[in-house]
Amino acid sequence: MAPLTAAPDELVLLHNPRCSKSRAARALLEERGVAFRERRYLEDPLSEDELRELAARLGAPPAQWVRRSETAYAQAGLGDGASDAAILRAMAAHPILIERPIAVRGARAVVGRPPERVLALVGDARD
Description:
The protein has 127 residues and is α+β, with helices and mostly antiparallel strands. It is built from four helices and four strands; from the N terminus they run βαβαααββ.
């Protein structure tokens, strides 16, 4: 399993190629010549520890970046008032529940909705 980021200035895009918003965020980074590592989180799921780290970098509880409309949400027994721990467990078991795309760099992360939000982390990430 790859770490969220290998270096403090590395930009990582948590990407689902089947998602139009995720593809748009990836294209924005490529168009600007920004170096980034793509992590296809459906194929390389995040662990609960990585998800806790991601929550801290996002500065948002998991309830704000879980995909409630996915079938797996109800199947995991989640609903209003679900604990952070329960949501993170469900996300680790069912990565489709993670909102996408998410860009991670340094101590920060952003949900790319709209996709242009990923550019907030670009700064000096250009090679």
